[in-house]
Amino acid sequence: MCNPCLADFMETPKDLTKYCNKCGSFLVSEKETCLSCRDSPLLEHVDFVLPLHSYRLWKKEILFYWKILGNRSFSPVIAKMYAEVLERFFFGIALVPIPPRPGKIRKTGWDQIDEITKILSLNKKHKISNLLKRVSRRQQKKMNRQERLDTIGRVYALKDGIKDLPSKVVLIDDIMTTGATLESCALVLKEGGVKEVYALCLFIGS
């Protein structure tokens, strides 16, 4: 990225009052909750999502080059952004990465969320709690909206042997589109005893 685009991309939220207090989308009214979350709420078990960017224009290319083409040079930059926001708004809360589908790392050699959390773990301020496993191999990107919503509660599970869960966690993911992934993970975590589930994402889709 050129320096102006990098500066724009590295800009992170300083004040949450302009964001929906549920899904984190940018508010266009004086209401604390966006119209979608008021009319047809999906995130029943997620307490708050904070996305850093809207998934549009040139920023869509970043996810493509990073996630799809495997340009891992973006990883340290994205991890730095996450670290700043975590210290600002979620300090001391355990981080729970969204796990990849079974076999992905063996097939591709890496997973973008796994890599981000490994970088974050180098900073002793961030505790990584790998509490979840994915039990479905089907790719989310190959599902339509309704199919994604129908997967809630059936794609993720607690890892075997997990007993003492933290009271608060922050889910780490790259993009929220329908919110089905975050809601499915939050449902599992709260059924396991977690009291508050937040989420930090790089992008929010339209």
Could you explain the architecture of this structure?
The relative contact order is 0.19. Helix content is 34%, strand content 17%. Helix 4 (75-89) crosses helix 6. The two termini are 24 Å apart. A 4-stranded parallel beta sheet has the order 1-6-5-2. It has a two-stranded antiparallel sheet with strand order 3-4. The protein has one domain (41-204): Rossmann fold. By secondary structure, it is an alpha/beta fold. It is globular and about 45 Å long. The protein has helices spanning 3-10, 35-39, 59-68, 75-89, 104-108, 112-121, 145-150, 180-191; strands spanning 48-54, 94-97, 132-134, 156-158, 168-176, 196-204. It contains 8 helices and 6 strands.
Low-confidence stretches: none
Global shape: globular
Q: What average pLDDT do the residues reach?
A: 91
Major sheet = 4 strands, parallel
> How many domains, in number, for the residues?
1
Residue fraction in strands: 15-25%
Distance between the termini: 24 Å
Order of helices and strands: HHEHHEHHEHEEHE
User: How helical, in percent, are the residues?
Assistant: 25-40%
With strands numbered from the N-terminus, the spatial order across the biggest sheet is 1-6-5-2
Helix segment tally: 8
Number of strand elements: 6
Task: Please state the CA-atom Rg, rounded to the nearest Å.
Answer: 16 Å
CATH topology-level name: Rossmann fold
Q: What's the level 1 CATH class?
A: Alpha Beta
> What CATH architecture label applies?
3-Layer(aba) Sandwich
Please state the structural category. alpha/beta
